[in-house]
Amino acid sequence: MVSVSVVSMDGTVLLEKVTLEPEDYVQALRAKVWMKCKDPNFDLVTQAGTLLSDIASIADSGISDGATITFMKKATASVAGRPVPEELLSFWEFLLKKKVEQRLLELWFLEDFAKMSSETRATFMDQFAACDSIDATGPTRSIPHQWSFTGKAPSGELLTFEWECED
Length: 167
Fold this sequence. Notes:
about 30% strand, alpha+beta
């Protein structure tokens, strides 16, 4: 027997100590979550950030006793095969629209940029709203990573934004 809990992205406990057999499929857990939330449009993600496959068994998915699984509304975007959480979609789309280098986003969006507080993201988006593009420099080799962003306002003014990724 394996006992797992399912929490939402904000930490709200949806299901606590659900008992499953190791040979049960993830689909069995999905059904229990669906009964709770009444919305089939979600993904289940392990603590390591791995998207769970409905056709894999609990054991094959590496879910151990006492594990916490995260409930995520299905994202409409993904980065390197990992879903962009719903609360970060507007920031992701903003960075794409502002032509931030795609490779940089694929490597660092979920690792660093996703750690920006909602207030910092709002300030960042306000500051660069009128810019056609944003250049990002970073990360530094030191921990925490440091980033520098620049963009050119329609007036010709060079805008800069310095940010340190919180660990």
